[in-house]
């Protein structure tokens, strides 16, 4: 998967036609073969753009910065990124007419060690669902039957004390840097509820219990919206298995409410914005 | 339950920790104003006894219950939480409890996934006319949590000393 040349051509064309102010893409990080996001403001910088299977980050995240807000933006999205873009459009965070979206029919990206990332091996929507221009051959796999994430299945089998001890260790390692929140395209609130200084409910301490409160809050705010792009896990300096919380919520929502994956259907706001009379009631006395 | 076999009551999430003698659980009861709170009132005026372990908070609707309420309760003093609202179809705000029902299920499963016993987070529908049912619910929740032992997960005071 190498679309470097096509993306450079598209960006040059868009700048020449005056259609965009900023182009968000990937560039080489300068010392090894990994890539970092780059914001390009003119045609002279177009040669820096690359796209290979090392283009791991979700660029939709950069639509919430001041560099792109209220500007016309060109953007490269993979399948999962396009779903988060779809949700941002549905939630009125960006205007579609300000965007030029270069969609990729993604074949999966690889991590630092060259292995295909776990979310790519179980990806159900590899083609970009929002795009002005689609690169690559669409796989047209359609919606597959939902498979529970193997990590979730393993943990759910464990006895309760073991699971509790495992997660206590996870939350203990959190350093409360909030990189997970900053790297998430769907955490766009200008003032996050966990940042309030005079909070009465929120436990803001930099402790295990504080981290528990923060990550629980975060994952529940993303329940039914998370698109499993794993930007949070890539950003986490402590390498916490954050996908566990999201995949757990996703599997519960999929199995009990028969909701589609988040962001696949345009205009669909996620599981918590609607209800059904047939929702499970057996856990309530 | 395996906790009853031992002579000492242990915390089910952390079996190495033993409950103090004569330990009594603290249960946070979050009740909707229109049904369950009135129902609990009826329990009292009908002179039906229910355990004093429950501490009641009144909220306008069960959909007012943010998962923060549950997490905060469990992090501070509570050993368990009971959230109660109107029966489906009876909501004063037409559809509040339908939205709440989805959130409750996801919250309950997530808290269970990270290590809380599922009986620590309980939900019920109690209408304003169901005084005896409210007493039954509180009895059941208190009994369930007495079997589980004290909660020691992510307690604020364990970390902030």
Offer a concise description of the structure.
The complex is a heterodimer of chains A (285) and B (161). Chain A has 285 residues and is α/β, with parallel strands linked by helices.
Written description of the protein model:
The complex is a heterodimer of chains A (285) and B (161). Chain A has nine helices and five strands, in the order H-E-E-E-H-E-H-E-H-H-H-H-H-H. Chain A has helices at 4-17, 79-90, 118-121, 150-157, 160-172, 179-183, 208-221, 231-235, 243-257; strands at residues 22-28, 35-40, 73-77, 99-104, 133-135. Chain B is an alpha/beta fold and 161 residues long. Chain B has six helices and four strands; from the N terminus they run H-E-H-E-H-E-H-E-H-H. Chain B has helices at 2-5, 36-45, 67-75, 96-113, 131-148, 156-159; strands at 27-32, 54-59, 80-85, 121-125. In chain B, helix 2 (36-45) crosses helix 5.
Give the strand order of the largest sheet of chain A, numbering strands 1, 2, ... along the chain: 2-1-3-4-5
Largest interface: A-B, 47 and 44 residues
Beta-strand percent range of chain A? 5-15%
Number of strands of chain B: 4
Query: Main β-sheet of chain B, in a few words?
Result: 4 strands, parallel
Question: Any chance you could write out the topology, listing elements then pairs?
Answer:
The complex is a heterodimer of chains A (285) and B (161).
Chain A: H1 4-17, E1 22-28, E2 35-40, E3 73-77, H2 79-90, E4 99-104, H3 118-121, E5 133-135, H4 150-157, H5 160-172, H6 179-183, H7 208-221, H8 231-235, H9 243-257
Chain B: H1 2-5, E1 27-32, H2 36-45, E2 54-59, H3 67-75, E3 80-85, H4 96-113, E4 121-125, H5 131-148, H6 156-159
Parallel strand pairs in B: 1-2, 1-3, 3-4
